[in-house]
């Protein structure tokens, strides 16, 4: 028959028996309190903002939107959270909502670079590319060492066929990041399209000049002579006759 292990060592008085129950209970309570303390730290506006950023980078825009909204609820008027909300709405093709939250973020923090980048994307989506260019250039003044801002500026200039400005932006990217593959590709495309645009403009100019010349030459009243009504100077008047 197996001997049973006593619940308490020999020599311990029976009046201390409760310690064998109290210590495990205290340990369990400590674990529970630590868990809720950790949860309280994980429930801050910053934690929800970081969670939104992680979801956004994973392209889980619905979950990102909820996380940013929770962050903004816990710290009303948080420009970073408002920008995140706007960016998510933009990804969800709700441009009007996106513009509302992004412009509010800029109002609260006029130096928030990400908000201007998001505004450039929103203006482009809304079809106002000049406003988009203005927004991205504002971002570049706030963060002049960020090559991705100049890359976006180059893309926007290319989109509106301002290829010289586009090339200037792409070259600025390479000054900051010499091996930037997208900037090199942008330079190749902008150069090719710029040359094509120049050729088309030259052909159009020559064609217009040809039309003008043909129109002038076929005009009945047109007289290239400096003398009115004749191709030769008038006969001199003989006063002696």
Compute the gyration radius: what is it?
A: 38 Å
Helix segment count?
A: 10
Largest sheet: none
Can you count the beta strands? 0
Proportion of residues in β-strands = under 5%
Mean pLDDT: 82
Tell me the helix content. over 70%
Q: Which structural category do the helix and sheet elements fall into? A: mainly alpha
**Unreliable residue runs:** 34-40, 222-234
Through-space gap between termini: 168 Å
Based on Cα principal axes, name the global outline.
elongated
Order of helices and strands: HHHHHHHHHH
Describe this structure in a few short sentences.
By secondary structure, the protein is an all-alpha fold. The chain has helices at residues 19-41, 45-57, 61-74, 79-91, 95-108, 113-126, 129-142, 147-159, 163-176, 181-217. It starts with 18 loop residues before the first helix and ends in a 24-residue tail after the last helix.
Please, could you describe this protein's structure?
This protein is mostly helical and 241 residues long. It is built from 10 helices and no strands. 26% of the residues are buried.
